[in-house]
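Batch manifest, entry 17 of 40.
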Amino acid sequence: MTQTISLTENIPLKLQMSPAIDMTDEQFFAFCQQNRDYRIERNATGEITIMPPTGSETGNRNFDLIVQLGIWTRQNGTGIGFDSSAGFTLPNGAMKSSDAAWIKLEKWHTLTPEQQQKFAPICPDFIIELRSPSDNLQPLKDKLQEYIDNGVSLGWLIDRKNRKVYIYRPNSEVECLDNPATLSGESILPEFVLQLSTIW
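Output type: C-alpha cells
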C-alpha cells in the first residue's frame, strides 16, 4: 500500500492508495459504506482516491446546481438526476461520482433493482463538475474526458476560480467559455438552462 498526502496550503488532504489486495465491487461498496463521511472514487486500475467533504461555500453553489437541474428534471420527466454522493461504475471499471448527473429513464430501467442500489454499472448521459477553490484543474479535466470516453453525451466543468466553463462532448474539441451567464443543455437536456449568477 502506498500513500501520497499533499499538505500544501489551501489544498485539502487527499489520500491515494493502491490496495495490496484488490477489492471486488462488493468489497469496495462495503468499504465506501463504512466511510460515508468521505467522497471515494476508484480508477480503472483499482487505485482509490479518498477526499474530504467540500467547503461550505462550494457545497452551497453545488446545492444551487442540483436545485436547478432537479426542477428541470421533474418538469421534463424523461430522466432522473443524482447528487454528488451517487457513484457509477463506468465501462472501463472505474467508479466515479460527479457533483451532478442525469440519466435517461429508459437507460436507467435496463438495470436491476440491485444494480440501482449500489454503484450502478452505467454511465450518466450528462454530468457537472464544480471546481472548488482548492481543486487542481487538470485532474478535473482528465475526469471529464474519462466520462466522455465512457459514454457521457455532455459534460460541464465549471471553474469558479477563473470564471470559465469547459464543455465536453463526444468526438469534439473541448469548448471553453469565459464568464458565461447561462449554459444550455443542448439536445441532451432540451430547454434546460443553467443560470450561473448564483454559481459564480
